[in-house]
Amino acid sequence: MRKIGITSASFAFLCTVACTSQPTSVSRPTVNAATPPQAANPPAALPPSATGGFDGAQAFEHVRKLVEIGPRPPGSDGIHRAQTYIISQLRSFGCPVEEHDFHGSTPLGDVAMKNIVAKIPGTGSGIVLYTTHFDTVRLPNFVGADDGGSGTGTMLELARIFCARKTKSALSTWIVFFDGEEAQGEWTDRNSVQWSDADSTFGSREMAASMALSGDLKRVKAMILADMIGPSNLKIKRDKNSTPWLIDLIWATAKQLGYENILVNESTTVSGDDHLSFIRRGVPACDLIDDEVETTYWHTPDDTLEKVDPRSLAIVGHVFIETLPALEKKFH
């Protein structure tokens, strides 16, 4: 996750940049993981019976598995293990899985990356994208429980539910795990991280460009991004860079479910995140993110498992489940 709000170094750069594919890759340095702290007794999640079947405890277990892997920057052994875990879980759910391999031209050289997509077909031509990133910023001992983990755990649990449904929805649902979201560089601490649109969001830019070439992009009705949704005191504000009608629809859904104190009626500005790769190409998109963690554990070794609350994952997952029929009704 990048800088948020008007303090972002990338705020002025809302240009359209596509990932550059390269024919070869180079060896990548790997950050060694320290043994991550474990949350012995995580808070209790809301029961699946109260969240449309979404199991916040299971989403949390996915986060735990990712944290146990350690740092997961692009091109590293850690991210290869994370890719294997995500793909194996999706296949165990019966999801149709695609692996989209590409190369990002970064300040560190040519880096092999991989987007992972679970495609659940619908009865119509429209597509809804539920998305997150699974890489972590390249910092020593950074395990990204919230930043990189919470969204991934939530999307895996969402995939379990959607892939098990016997009745097809009107909209095809693609659940997407982006590689290369974080700014690429050999950073020493969070103050050293230099963010720019050309050196980040590689996975989302690659996918948006590929879908534009294939013609699938014009079928996308909405792109919904989850990034840093784990805090126990979760507070998600309306992003001014997101598509207004989509924000209104999701926030109305959350209010109907009783979560108006989680998805709050306050505004923020998120610059440099994966949703902008689609907004720049005319696709309605939004970002669900708790921007208040920027002043706490964000981009530090303190982003560990105890920063993630299964209840928060369950709430966001519940909102996502109920957002799909709201979108179907809108585009029926």
Structural account:
The chain is α/β, with parallel strands linked by helices. It has one domain: 3-Layer(aba) Sandwich (Aminopeptidase), CATH 3.40.630. It has helices at residues 56-69, 77-92, 145-164, 202-214, 244-256, 275-279, 310-331, and strands at 97-106, 109-120, 127-133, 172-178, 220-226, 236-239, 263-268, 285-288. The strands form two sheets. Strands 1-2-4-3-5-8 form a six-stranded mixed sheet, with helices on both faces. A two-stranded parallel ribbon has the order 6-7. The chain is globular and about 50 Å long.
Summarize the topology:
Elements: H1 56-69, H2 77-92, E1 97-106, E2 109-120, E3 127-133, H3 145-164, E4 172-178, H4 202-214, E5 220-226, E6 236-239, H5 244-256, E7 263-268, H6 275-279, E8 285-288, H7 310-331
Parallel strand pairs: 3-4, 3-5, 5-8, 6-7
Antiparallel strand pairs: 1-2, 2-4
Helix pairs in contact: 1-3, 1-7, 3-7, 5-7
